[in-house]
Specification:
Layout: H1 2-21, H2 27-37, H3 42-53, H4 63-73, H5 79-92, E1 97-104, E2 107-111, H6 112-135, H7 140-153, H8 158-170, H9 174-185, H10 192-208, H11 212-226, H12 229-241, H13 245-259, H14 267-297, H15 304-333, H16 342-378
Antiparallel strand pairs: 1-2
Helix pairs in contact: 2-3, 2-4, 3-4, 4-5, 5-6, 6-7, 7-8, 8-9, 8-10, 9-10, 10-11, 11-12, 12-13, 12-14, 13-14, 14-15, 14-16, 15-16
Length: 379
């Protein structure tokens, strides 16, 4: 009984000393706390607290803005006012003590500025970021406001910058989208995963604006950081879009080798796009050969070297058409589920078209050019 009495006396003295150390309270501030804590009347509590905020008694008192932030505005999710009052509390008295200590990561925090920086700002950032994720689909302006505020709370959290950049891109605010990604890329603390994600977002922005050279550049940087699957697929697709078919073919072959055992779900579409790359290369050589045929049909002079180049072009075209057809057929035959994708049907159609090109080259075009070359030799 004696020990229990001593313990109660100690607690009473501790609370008494702690409250005395907190400084004097005005009638307005006392009323605000009563309204908020006992009556749950936040409207009246805010009215009294704002009066106390401007009172000379509390001119340097951090408790009033801290109370407004944590007990009035936070429950109402008025995040801009929460942030404003927390900053006001820090500026009024950086050494202020909490009325009630808080525990954060197994550490007891007694100083208000520590609680703001290490507890409340982290908690608020998490709440605001998740609210922004939810709002991004329905109210982008709200999401932007939340993210801008979250950056004030934690200026080095990459997630806020990435989501904000994506929303700006959706709003077609490309300069703002790039601005926030570039800000994040300047952080010294970035790891490889974060760098890769930022590079991918920047690559997507440039893809959206059809700046394929820069899109390729940043996807290459992302791939160099983490061997990103997304970057690898994008490098194949972007080179197709930029009509660099030889480069597309090379990235496609890398994608096939790296993804076959790791993520086979991508393989059919990779095979299809490799087929496209080979077909575009084949078509380029095919067109060069046909240009010479057209000159001959128009009775224009064609040199021996042009005829030999024409023959070589048709042979290269034939080789690439053959490879293209193989990739299209393999793409079509890959099992990816019960339903056949639209592009798989397209793959079969393209394989048949490619076969027609090959037949024309073998049966008609090459024999025609070889005959012309033979006649020149006889002459």
């Amino acid at each position: 009984m004696y020990k229990f009495f001593n313990y109660c006396l100690f607690c009473f003295i501790l609370v008494f000393v702690w409250n005395c150390a907190s400084g004097p309270s005005s009638i307005e501030f006392t009323s605000a706390k009563t309204k908020a804590r006992s009556e749950r009347n936040l409207k009246d509590a805010e009215m009294y607290a704002l009066q106390a905020l401007d009172s000379p008694v509390h001119a340097a008192d951090a408790r009033v803005p801290y109370f407004l932030a944590t007990e009035i505005y936070k429950p109402q999710k008025k995040w801009d006012l929460v942030y404003k009052m927390l900053e006001e509390a820090k500026s009024r008295d950086p050494e202020a003590k909490l009325e009630t200590p808080v525990v954060y990561k197994d550490k007891v925090i007694t100083q208000m500025s520590d609680a703001i920086e290490n507890y409340y700002k982290n908690e608020l950032w998490y709440i605001m970021y998740n609210d922004a994720v939810t709002a991004a689909d329905t109210d982008r302006n709200k999401a932007v406001d939340l993210l801008l505020l979250s950056i004030k709370l934690d200026s080095k959290n990459v997630k806020s910058y990435i989501l904000l950049s994506k929303i700006y891109k959706l709003n077609n605010q490309i300069d703002s989208s790039l601005e926030y990604i570039d800000q994040a890329l300047k952080f010294d603390s970035l790891d490889s995963e974060q760098k890769a994600e930022l590079y991918l977002v920047k690559g997507d922005i440039y893809r959206e604006t059809k700046d394929y050279d820069n899109a390729i550049k940043f996807n290459e940087l992302a791939y160099a950081e983490t061997k990103s699957t997304y970057a690898l697929i994008e490098l194949l697709n972007l080179n197709l879009l930029s009509e660099d078919f030889l480069e597309a073919k090379q990235w496609g072959e890398v994608a096939y080798e790296e993804l076959y055992s790791v993520d086979p779900a991508f393989i059919p579409s990779v095979l299809f796009n490799i087929g496209l790359a080979y077909r575009y290369v084949a078509t380029t050589y095919y067109d060069l050969g046909v240009n010479v045929i057209d000159k001959l049909n128009e009775n224009k002079d064609v040199s021996r070297s042009e005829l030999e180049d024409c023959k070589d072009n048709f042979e290269v075209a034939l080789e690439h058409f053959d490879l293209s057809r193989d990739y299209f057929l393999e793409s079509h035959d890959e099992e990816i589920g019960d339903a056949e994708e639209e592009w798989q049907t397209d793959a079969l159609l393209r394989a048949d078209q490619t076969k027609d090109y090959m037949k024309q080259i073998k049966k008609t075009l090459l024999p025609f050019i070889e005959n012309k070359i033979s006649n020149l030799r006889i002459e």
